[in-house]
Description:
Layout: H1 2-8, H2 12-17, E1 22-35, E2 38-51, E3 55-59, H3 66-73, E4 81-86, E5 89-90, H4 96-106, E6 107-111, H5 122-133, H6 138-148, H7 164-176, E7 182-186, H8 194-211, E8 214-218, H9 222-225, E9 230-235, E10 238-244, H10 255-259
Parallel strand pairs: 3-8, 3-9, 6-7, 7-8
Antiparallel strand pairs: 1-2, 1-4, 4-5, 9-10
This protein binds adenosine-5'-diphosphate and magnesium ion.
Amino acid sequence: MATATATIEAPAGEAAAAxxxxxxxxxxxxxxxxxxxxxxxxxRGVSLDIKRGExxxxxxxxxxxxxxxxxxxxxxxxPTSGDYALDGEQIGExxxxxxxxxxxxxxxxxxxxxxxxxxxxxLEQVELPLVYAGVADRRxxxxxxxxxxxxxxxxxxxxxxxxxxxxxxxxxxxALVNDPAILLADEPTGALDTTTAGEIMAILQRLNRExxxxxxxxxxxxxxxxxxxxxxxxRDGIISADEVxxxxxLAQASAAAASE
Length: 260
Ligand SMILES: Nc1ncnc2c1ncn2[C@@H]1O[C@H](COP(=O)(O)OP(=O)(O)O)[C@@H](O)[C@H]1O
Ligand SMILES: [Mg+2]
């Protein structure tokens, strides 16, 4: 009987590859910075579950711990105490090299100031993470990622030859080309006008809807937060409220962006 049972079990490799439905699991996470004699409690006990396919906004006043939270989620920093499981894997037990590997594999980052290389064209910007990952069909994948954000006809354009919104779309393509589990965006629309911000949110909503991509973004604009499905409010290093967005705004890709 034991033998019969064993034969119908999934092979170990398959079981290990199975992903959990909860991509982010924080339990009583704290982060304390020490500057000389001064102690700064940036996070004071945060518990948070984010499931695959969620689209979440983090809001809160300056200094409330939003970036610290994002840095820990993105494995750029380790908590002082508490448990963090990313995609079912305990992060606290990992060393720097393992953390770097997890970052490359599982996380895509987008920043307010785009963080593109000045003299590098769009295609090469998006190929870079694939170079680090040692992927072979880099050009095809980078091109597909740029096409997915409506920039198929801007492959050889450098940042100075692109609008702010187009630069942010290159950054999104770069963040997604490795097929990460989560996209983390710290104020992704902070440097853009309202119309362009709406176009960026249209892309994030579409990726979330069509690819079930988990997106977590920081914003201080209520209007941007309403494009998401859930708003987590931070205050003084804790979550002060966690609300479902009742009437999610649907962002419109402009005619110009759609035809590009
Ligand atoms: N590297 C650091 N060293 C010392 N203190 C820090 C550091 N990063 C953030 N802090 C402090 O931690 C608190 C939370 O900061 P942060 O997470 O950047 O907030 P937010 O992104 O919401 O503005 C603030 O009091 C900030 O001054
Ligand atoms: Mg911040």
